[in-house]
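Incident review: delayed structure delivery

Summary: a single-chain prediction request sat in the queue longer than the usual turnaround. Root cause was a stuck worker, restarted by the on-call engineer. No data loss occurred. The affected request and its eventual output are reproduced below so the record is complete for anyone auditing the incident later.

Affected input:
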Amino acid sequence: MKIGRGARLGHYEVVSSLGAGGMGEVYRARDTRLNREVAIKVLPASCANDEDRLLRFEQEARATSALNHSNILTIYDIGAHEGSPYIVAELLEGEELRRHLNDGAIPQRKAIDYARQIASGLAAAHSKAIVHRDLKPENIFIITDGRVKILDFGLAKLKPTKLAAGVSSEAATLNAITDPGTVMGTVGYMSPEQVRGQDADHRSDIFSFGVVLYEMLSGRRAFHGESAAETMAAIVKDDPTDLSEINNRVPAQLERIVRRCLEKKPERRFQSSHDLAFALEALSTTSGSRLETASASAETIRTASHSIGREKLWIAVTALAVLVALGVSWAYFTRKPLADARVMKFSILPPENSSFGQMAVSPDGRYLVFTAVAGGMMQLWVRALDATEAKPLSGTQDAVFPFWSPDSRYVGFFAGGALKKIEVTGGPVQTLCEVEVPLGGTWSRNGVILFAQVPLGLLRVAATGGEVTQVTTNDRSRQEFSLWYPTFLPDGRHFLYSISSEVKETRGVYLGSLDGKTKRRLLDESSVIKYVADGAARGAGWVVYGRDGALLARPFDADRLELSGEPFAVSDKVGNDLISFLSYNFSVSDNGVLVFDPSLNRQRRQYRWVDRGGRQIKSLEVTPGIFQLSLSPDEKRFVADRIDQKTGTYDLWLYDVSGANAARFTFDPQHDISPVWSPDGNRIVWASAHDGIESLYQKAASMAGEATLLLKSDHTKLPTDWSRDGRFIIYAEIDPKTKSDVWALPVTGNGESSPFQVVRSDANEGEGTISPDGQWLAYASDASGRYEVYVQRFPGGSDKRQVSTAGGDNPRWRRDGKELFYYAANGKLMAAPVKSGESFEISAAVPLFEFRSGTVPGFAPYAVTGDGQRFLIDSMEAEPNAPLTVVVNWTANVKR
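Output delivered after worker restart:
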């Protein structure tokens, strides 16, 4: 059944045909609800005529969709169109493994990498009692970035054609329904038990895996006859030609793995895909030199066997194995990078159903610490690079910008408005000092932590805590907006850092010193930058940084404190982190371990209109910012920040609520953020550092005229609300002595009068918003140790009560004052029924929907319509389980 362009299958709109086969038609389509492209496979109508088969199909599809593994095709939905069942899946760009095999054997390292990923996908499915039954090159897809996806997992049960006498070797997939005694699989890739029509469990997939791996390494099929019957007979009785006879470069360890997979009896194969994946993982992390050493050692043993007895031989073998194991461990964890050593490369996955955020590899190369969201909570996780799983670090909720102590014992991070540290093994979190808006930190061997804070610049504090000292500030005369991501050099006195600015001659990577006397520009573009010693000569080393989507390394003389050569491309792809959105996501250890995110676009941030259940109404084709957005009172427009990718600075832009008619609203060389509309919709007030410090500016919403200064003082101010009667602008003021406080600026017909404090304490308070009747103020405070939403009388401050109970911020009122919304710490948008007036009553808040905020913490990721029925949200979605790349001894590939 052919389906034309524009046809609708439920809420899926067909875009084009992708191909056809015996199992139906495949189409590219657009999911109109979530505004994403998908693949739809429409199956023959006969599949719907057998109720038992259709029921099993639906059960398999649901089970497969629950796997959510990076090496298995994701199933989104199932349905029926004009009597034909269809499957909706993720849309992949790349080629089937069969296309790669048409050119012969696959390079060994690539084959091992593919095999490792296939085994990982099988392990995930088998753990849920799902068996593929039809693993073959046509059902293995290689994405353009090198990741592997297993297709049609569990859906082989739908394939209806029974094996008949005389069928040719070109026969496609055979019958895979679950009737006892029925042959299931594809000729040439079936297991012996499948050929016999016996029950086939997960070990059948392991046999098929061995057949595929054999073909990748040899370029030949393991079992191939003149007819299907001869091929099946060979599967049952014959062993394939030894790989070493076809390809003498295949190491003995790898051939043994293949042989074990191809054992005729299931009980003699690998008994789990986890074991198989582990064997391949161990092999994939073995360098070429170690393989050669192992081969040479084996030859030595064979020679020795002629002159010593069997007992002495086994003693020698055991001793050699122990020495090799100890030597590899010692070399891996203690050596300096050597130019003549081989490079080892492998991938690691984040915790299940999550994605990597920011990361840092320990100086000794043993551990990786990273941020990840799991169960609605973002926190730090740590993983030993020789382990298979990561573990969360308790007490690190909302952590950002992790970094290591030089001895690899502690992890420094920022959370809850403070700089903190925790031991890598866990334990109590220690707070070192207050930091409101951090932009990275670094820890010297002298026990000094240097960190960046907006808008103050770079500051230092002892690793044990204590007094905070200014090191360098933003030079407003040069239009420096922010200093970020400092990293110490070996002497502990000098460091590298980046400066963002709209002025080309100002922005870039700089050399600085703790005494504040050194400031020299090294690179003309801002980037996170890391230093690693070379080890070949005194002072020799490399700086690693990102530029134009690539990861580069450039020689750096740490004694002369200057670049000493041309850059070299370490990787042509490196992605940005999902928290700051400003920096490239990579880290290097002192001994040559490099970890980086190879995905350029695995995260998607967008503005979306949703209803109270979180169901999408419309997604906007608008470049999202990372600060606050604001909806106009008439709900026809909204204003939001938008980054200039070259300068790293933010301006305000106006849009229709549909995302159309974008118009730039501000043109300053500094950040313009946190906009708020006047209640009549005629003006917008926002924060800008145009005159050196973040102050309040205003301008006509029609864009007529110039921006004018509304309020300036010595401390940063961020507007958060304008009262419904137009009398007060509410803003947060950040004072290093009193932290963040809530202030009100009276606005009168004759001009502005003096501002006054509304909420002030030893804690941080902000995000103030006035109830529609003007009598109550909602705000967020961390007085309890984490941010919660509170309400008190305005302006007097009496009758204070707590609204949220498990963490929350960014309160917003419904226009009639009958609901108070806020964003909870678990990522859910909450709604609390209220009655306000002379008294204030509040009922328990209920969750509306969950989404991951795309804004910087402390800035509202949503706006709400007056009736409380629709929400404009700034959300972020990341590809779950996307891997990171780990490269050991990466400097061996650097050209000198």
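Verification: The radius of gyration is 31 Å.
Action items: add queue-age alerting; document worker restart procedure.
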